Predict the structure.
Amino acid sequence: MDGQAISQVLLNTYQKLSAYYGPQHWWPAEEPFEVIVGAILTQSAAWTNVEKAIANLKKAGALTPKTLRKLPSEQIASLIYPSGYYNVKARKLKTFVNWLGRRYGDNLSNLFNNNIDDLREQLLTVYGIGEETADSIILYAADKPVFVIDAYTRRVLNRLGLKPPTETYDAYQTFFMEHLPADSKLFNEYHALLVCLGKDVCRKNPVCERCCLNATGRHATEGQYPCSLALR
DNA sequence: GGCCAGGACACCA
DNA sequence: TGGTGTCATGGC
């Protein structure tokens, strides 16, 4: 399949997912700092649990860099308890707000004034921010066009028969970004739709969860997908 | 009672 | 460089 055909498949898939599921309105947060906190808390956690943790932080008035810097890690940990891994995540939040204050005086606009490559490079130096979290921050908080890769994205792309040359994060990301226009709105919606599809298939069809949405590469027959139209 | 969710990091060979 | 263990709650 040549580059143009791949672009067509990706755009076609996007359009079908969009028509099937509708707008996703990601990221579910009121402001960019909340997006960043959510991106850290959602690491290997269900979003419903993250919502509880964020609600606790809001209720405690702790959803600002300054407050998080002041609060002891133990107290942050107890507030974010429902999101799991609370001790590690408390440390990650503390590390980020310390870095943000020291380097940018808590001003996210200044941080986001960096170009995408510099922004990504800087975020990746912070403890607790890996590739997916960095890209989620760049796309959903800074509104810059990078494609976020997660487990769902990999599985769905594999199911489309479009596995990149190597199965690294970078290879998957390059694959999407080389074949789609650099549009943050498109990337925003596309990634959200892929996650939506992944959750939907898992929930409605456990056969798919075992056969085609796991990491083994095995896959089920077309008819077993609740929205197989979106995957053709 | 087991499995998994919008990962990242440390450690080891 | 790649594989494995660790961190942990809550919903199904």
The two ends of chain A are 15 Å apart (CA to CA). Residues 184-204 of chain A form the longest helix (21 residues). Residues 206-232 of chain A have pLDDT under 50 and may be disordered. Residues 26, 38-40, 42-50, 84-85, 88, 92, 127-133, 136, 148, 150-153, 191-192, 194-195, 198-199, 202, 209 of chain A lie near DNA strand B (CB under 10 Å from a C1').
